[in-house]
Specification:
CATH architecture of the largest domain: 3-Layer(aba) Sandwich
CATH class of the largest domain: Alpha Beta
Strand order of the largest sheet: 1-2-3-9-8-7-6-4-5
CATH topology of the largest domain: Rossmann fold
Shape: globular
Radius of gyration: 32 Å
Oligomer: single chain
Length: 939
C-alpha cells in the first residue's frame, strides 16, 4: 500500500481558531473534541479499543474552545489524545452523526480529518444502521463484481496460488443472476452511478459490504441518499468508499484484508489496515460487525452441529483437527464437536494467529457441515401445507369443515407444520427437509390464494418457515361470490419460482342452513397437493432468482385463466378470449414444420418476413391481453414484462399458453421486412441500442421482440390423468448434483412413420454430433435394454401418437405402448445421472391440441428425465428426423460455444437457429429446471 497519499484537510471545522494549528495538531484537536470523555480518565487498553466520536460532543467542546484561551484548551486536548493513543487506549474511532444530517460540519470532512495519519488510529468507521440488512456472512467469502470491474481490478487473481490466504478464504466470481449474493460486492463507480447500474438489473442482489472504488469528494448531503438507497437495494450491512490509485494492486490490498480477517481482526480494523484509513470511508451496521467475527462464525457452525443426529457422518479433513487442536474425532457424534467448539470459542481458546489456523478450519467446518445437513432428510419429521377455514357469523367465528356460504366472510389460515396440526392437511409434505439453512433460522416463503371463478385478484402473504417446527400463519380473508364448486389454488413460491401448489376444494352454498348438519365420510373441504415442483430445498438460498412466475390453468367452470406473481404483486388474467390468437399461432408454426424448406432461404427472406410479421400481430394481442391490461393494476405485470427469467407452470394440458410468442415491440407495418440488424442482434443476444422500434407501426419486424428469443423461460407441467402430484423425484439440480454431462451415448427411437432415408440420415447426423456414440432402438424392448446397458446421457424419441386421455400411446418401430406404462426404466437405471430427453414427432406437439404432447412430456419427466426438449408445433413424421438433427445440432453448438446453465444454453440455441434461418427454432421449448449445468461430451 502506498504511504505517500496526500490528505486534503478541511480547515473550517474549528473556524479561525484552527488556523493557528499545524496539520498534526489540528486533526488531534478535532479528534479529541468529539470524544470529551477522554479527559475524564484513562481508557482500558485493548488491540480492538474503539471510542465514539459524536457531533454533540464536538459542539460542546467547540463552545469551550471559544470561552478560554484557545491555545491552552488546544494543548490540553492534544496532550490527552496523544497520551491515550500512545498508551494503546485508542485503535478505532466510531463516527456518529444524525441519520439525515445536512448541516455543518460535513461528515465526509470530519472523516477526512479523523483519517489523517497524525490521529494515530487504525480504523475510522461511520455508525450506519441498516434496517434492511441481510446479516448472513459465510466462509469462504464470496467476492463479486460486474464483468468489466472484475477484469479491470484483476479479481480473478484472488484464486491464484500466490495470493494467500485469499485463494483459500475467498471465492471471486463475476456478478450474475447465478452469483447474485456476496459478502463483498466491488464496483468501480461513484454512489450515484453504482445505484443506477444496480437498478438496471432485473434480478435482486445481496451483499454484505458494498465496496466502491471511487474518489471520496462528494458532499455528504449529496452522497448519503445514494448510499442509503444502495444499501437498501443490496440489503447490505456495510458500505465502503476507497480512493485507489490505478498503479497499485487492488488484489494485493484485498488479500491483505482477507489476511487481517483471518487473524480475527474486526471488520473495520482489518479494512483500515488493508486499504488505509486515510483514503477510505467505511460505514457499518454494528450487527454486521458482530456477524462477521470469526469466533461468531465458529459458534454459528457449532449451533448447527448441535442439532444434528448422532448418526451423521461429518466428513472433515484430518488437517482440521491440527489447525485448532481439536480433540473430537469422526467416531463421535457432531453434537460433541459442537460443545467443544462453543466452549473453546467462548473462552477464546481457538487460535487465529495464522491464516492456516482457525480461519482455514472454519472453511473446512462449513463445507463439512453443509454436506452433513443434506444427509438428514430421511430423519426429519415431514411438514405439510395445511390450514383451517373459518366463517364469520354475526357474533362469533366458526371453524368450518362442511363448505362455504355465499356472500359471507371467511378466512383460510394457512401454515406449514407437522401432520394433523390443522383441520385441513395436504396429502404431500412440503419438501423442507433438505433446506440449506446456513446460519438462517428461518426462510421466507410467499403464499398466494387464487380462485378466478370467485374473485378477480389473488390474495397474497408470507410464511416464515423455521428450521424446525411450525411456520408462521397467514390469514386469507375472502367472500365467496358464486354458488357452486369452489377451487382455490394455494401457491407457495420463493424468489419468482413456484415450489408447491395445492387446491382448496369445496362448495359454496346459498346460506348456512344449506350446509350439511355434519361432515359425512367425504370431507366437505379438502386441501390437495396439485404440483410439487421442488423435492429438495437443499440450495433454495443459493438458487438463481427468477423475476416472475405464471400458473396457467382453468377455473371450475372450464374458463382458461392464468395467475401471474412477481416479487411484490400478483394478478389473474382470463385467456378464454384468446382462442383465435392461439389457433392462429399454432397454424403458423405448423406451416413452418410442414414446409421447412420454404423458410430456409435466409432470415431476411420474404417468407420469413411474412411469418415473423404474422406471428408479431398474434403475439402482440397476447401481450396486450395478458400484460398491458394489468400494468396499472399490479406490479406483477411490470415484473412479467421486464423479466429476463420467467417460470411457467401449466396445470392442465389444454391450458398451455405459448407465451414464448408474446411480441412486446411496436407492431410492424404491413409487409414489413425483417430488421437489417436481426442476425447480428440474435448472435449478440441483444438489439443495438439505437435499433429497437419506438414508433407504431414499426418499419421492421424484429425476432428479439418475441419473449422466447429474449427470456429464459422455465416450464413445468402437471397432467391430472396421472393421478399424482407433478413432482420431481431425483432429477433436480442441487449442490453437488447439478450438472448434466453429455459425455456418454445417445439413444434414438423412431416411429415406423419416419421414412428409412430420414431414419438413417438422423442416426448418421447424430453420430457426427454426439462424439461418444449412438445406439438405436427398433422397439421398446430394445429401448429399455439400451437404458440398462448403455446408461445414455441423451434420449432422442420420435414416436407416433395414438389414443386419447389416459389411453394415449407411443409407437416406435411399430411397437405401441401406452404412455402410462413408461416409468424410470425407460429413462435411466438406479443412481445413474438423469438424461436430457429430446421428444418430438408426429402429432406430439401442437398448441391447438396439446393434451397428447404434454401427456408424454410429463410421463418422461415423472420417469425422471432431467429435461424434456420439444417443440410447440406439430412435426410430421416425414420431417421429424430432419428437425431432430437440426435442433440437436443447434443445441450442441450452443453448449460447446459456452457451457453453462441449460436455460441460457437453450436460449442461445434458439437464437442461433433463427439467425441461420432454421425457423423451427422459434418453436423449441424445454420442460424442467433451467438451472441444470450442461457439460459437453468433450470435457
Amino acid at each position: 500500500m502506498s504511504t505517500d497519499y496526500v490528505h486534503v484537510l478541511n480547515r473550517e471545522l474549528l473556524g479561525s481558531q484552527g488556523l493557528r494549528l499545524n496539520d498534526e495538531d489540528y486533526v488531534r484537536v478535532v479528534a479529541a473534541m468529539g470524544t470529551p470523555e477522554l479527559l475524564d480518565g484513562p481508557l482500558a487498553r485493548s488491540e480492538e479499543q474503539e471510542v465514539p466520536w459524536t457531533l454533540a460532543g464536538f459542539r460542546r467542546a467547540h463552545g469551550e474552545l471559544g470561552k478560554g484561551d484557545p491555545r491552552q484548551v488546544a494543548t490540553r486536548l492534544i496532550d490527552a489524545w496523544t497520551a491515550h493513543v500512545r498508551d494503546g487506549g485508542i485503535r478505532r474511532i466510531l463516527l456518529r452523526f444524525p441519520r439525515h444530517w445536512t448541516q455543518r460540519p460535513d461528515p465526509t470532512d470530519v472523516l477526512g480529518v479523523l483519517s489523517h495519519p497524525a490521529v494515530g488510529v487504525k480504523a475510522v468507521r461511520l455508525d450506519w444502521i441498516s434496517p434492511q440488512a441481510d446479516l448472513r456472512w459465510q466462509w469462504p467469502l464470496r467476492v463479486a463484481a460486474f464483468a468489466d470491474d472484475f477484469g479491470d481490478l484483476g479479481l480473478e487473481h484472488l484464486s491464484d496460488d500466490a495470493v494467500w490466504p485469499a485463494n483459500r478464504l475467498a471465492q471471486p466470481r463475476v456478478l450474475s443472476r447465478e452469483w447474485a449474493r456476496a459478502e463483498a460486492l466491488i464496483m468501480r463507480a461513484d454512489a450515484r452511478s453504482a445505484l443506477a447500474r444496480i437498478l438496471t438489473l432485473t434480478h435482486r442482489i445481496r451483499a454484505g459490504v458494498v465496496l466502491l472504488v471511487t474518489p471520496l469528494d462528494v458532499p455528504w448531503r449529496s452522497l448519503r441518499p445514494h448510499l442509503d438507497a444502495l444499501m437498501v437495494e443490496t440489503q447490505a450491512g456495510g458500505l465502503a468508499v476507497v480512493q485507489w490509485p490505478p498503479a497499485e494492486s487492488f488484489v494485493q490490498a484485498f488479500n491483505e484484508w482477507m489476511n487481517e480477517l483471518s487473524h480475527a481482526a474486526p471488520l473495520d480494523l482489518a479494512f483500515g489496515r488493508a486499504f488505509g484509513a486515510g483514503r477510505s470511508m467505511l460505514g457499518l451496521d454494528p450487527r454486521l460487525l458482530q456477524a462477521a467475527a470469526l469466533p461468531r462464525a465458529m459458534q454459528a457452525i457449532a449451533g448447527r452441529l448441535e442439532r444434528m443426529s448422532a448418526t451423521v457422518d461429518l466428513k472433515l479433513p484430518p488437517e482440521t483437527a491440527e489447525r485448532i487442536r481439536m480433540s473430537w474425532s469422526r467416531s463421535r457424534p457432531p453434537r460433541e464437536l459442537a460443545h467443544e467448539l462453543k466452549t473453546r470459542a467462548a473462552a477464546r481458546d481457538i487460535s487465529f494467529g495464522s491464516e492456516s489456523a482457525g480461519a482455514s478450519a472454519i472453511v473446512e467446518l462449513e463445507t463439512a457441515t453443509r454436506g452433513a445437513e443434506r444427509t438428514l432428510a430421511s430423519e426429519e419429521t415431514p411438514r405439510y401445507l395445511q390450514g383451517d377455514v373459518y366463517r364469520f357469523a354475526e357474533s362469533e367465528t366458526v371453524k368450518e369443515t362442511r363448505g362455504l356460504v355465499l356472500n359471507a366472510r371467511h378466512a383460510l389460515d394457512v401454515f406449514i407444520g407437522s401432520a394433523a396440526a390443522g383441520t385441513l392437511v395436504a396429502d404431500v409434505p412440503v419438501p423442507d427437509q433438505d433446506i440449506d439453512w446456513g446460519e438462517q433460522e428461518s426462510v421466507s416463503l410467499q403464499v398466494m390464494l387464487a380462485e378466478p371463478n370467485q374473485w378477480d385478484e389473488p390474495l397474497r402473504g408470507t410464511l416464515e418457515l423455521p428450521r424446525y417446527g411450525r411456520s408462521s400463519t397467514h390469514r386469507f380473508v375472502f367472500t365467496p361470490t358464486k354458488v357452486g364448486p369452489f377451487q382455490g389454488r394455494v401457491t407457495l413460491y420463493h424468489r419468482g419460482r413456484i415450489l408447491q401448489t395445492a387446491l382448496l376444494e369445496t362448495s359454496v352454498l346459498t346460506s348456512p342452513a344449506d350446509l350439511p348438519s355434519k361432515t359425512g365420510k367425504t370431507p366437505g373441504i379438502i386441501l390437495r397437493v396439485e404440483a410439487a415442483l421442488r423435492r429438495s430445498f437443499a440450495t433454495l438460498a443459493e438458487r438463481r432468482r427468477f423475476d416472475a412466475c405464471i400458473v396457467c390453468n382453468h377455473t371450475v367452470t372450464r374458463q382458461a385463466a392464468l395467475t401471474a406473481a412477481g416479487k411484490d404483486g400478483a394478478y389473474i388474467a382470463s385467456t378464454s378470449d384468446l382462442k383465435n390468437a392461439l389457433a392462429n399461432i399454432s397454424g403458423l408454426l405448423t406451416q413452418v414444420a410442414q414446409d421447412a424448406d420454404r423458410y430456409r432461404k435466409g432470415l431476411k427472406s420474404k417468407a420469413n418476413a411474412e411469418l415473423l410479421g404474422s406471428l408479431a400481430v398474434e403475439g402482440n394481442a397476447l401481450y396486450r391481453k395478458i400484460v398491458l391490461d394489468y400494468i396499472d393494476r399490479s406490479t406483477a405485470a411490470k415484473a412479467v414484462r421486464d423479466s429476463d427469467y420467467l417460470q411457467i407452470v401449466t396445470m392442465e394440458p389444454d391450458a398451455i399458453v405459448p407465451l414464448e410468442f408474446i411480441y412486446d415491440y411496436a407492431l410492424p407495418k404491413e409487409n414489413a421486412k425483417v430488421c437489417p440488424h436481426a442476425v447480428e442482434a440474435l448472435r449478440n443476444g441483444a438489439c443495438p441500442t439505437t435499433c429497437r422500434p419506438t414508433k407504431s407501426p414499426a418499419e421492421h419486424v424484429c425476432p428479439l421482440g418475441f419473449w422466447g428469443l429474449r427470456k429464459v423461460i422455465e416450464r413445468h407441467i402437471h397432467v391430472p390423468e396421472l393421478n399424482k402430484a407433478a413432482k420431481v423425484v431425483v432429477s433436480e439440480p442441487i449442490t453437488g448434483r447439478d450438472a448434466l454431462s453429455l459425455k456418454g451415448r445417445t439413444l434414438v427411437g423412431m416411429s415406423e412413420q419416419v421414412d428409412s432415408p430420414s431414419d438413417r440420415a438422423l442416426v448418421e447426423g447424430l453420430r457426427k454430433i454426439c462424439k461418444t456414440g449412438v445406439t438405436t432402438a427398433r422397439n421398446w424392448s430394445e429401448w429399455t435394454a439400451a437404458i440398462s446397458t448403455d446408461n445414455p446421457v441423451m434420449l432422442v424419441a420420435l414416436p407416433h401418437t395414438g389414443g386419447t386421455a389416459a389411453g394415449i400411446t407411443l409407437e416406435i418401430g411399430g411397437d405401441t405402448k401406452r404412455s402410462n406404462y413408461i416409468d424410470s426404466t425407460y429413462v435411466h437405471v438406479g443412481s445413474t445421472p438423469a438424461p436430457l430427453t429430446v421428444l418430438l414427432g408426429c402429432d406430439t406437439a401442437n398448441t391447438a391440441d396439446t393434451s397428447a404432447y404434454l401427456h408424454h412430456v410429463e410421463v418422461f419427466r415423472q420417469a425422471d428425465a432431467a429435461l424434456v426438449v420439444g417443440t410447440v408445433a406439430t412435426v410430421l413424421g416425414q420431417h421429424a428426423a430432419d428437425m431432430a438433427e437440426r435442433l440437436i445440432e443447434s443445441l450442441e453448438g450452443a453448449i460447446r460455444s459456452k457451457p453453462g446453465r441449460f436455460g441460457e444454453v437453450l436460449l442461445r440455441a434458439k437464437r442461433t437457429a433463427v439467425a441461420d434461418s432454421l425457423m423451427i427454432g422459434l418453436c423449441l421449448v424445454a420442460f424442467g429446471d433451467a438451472d441444470w449445468k450442461i457439460i459437453p461430451d468433450e470435457e
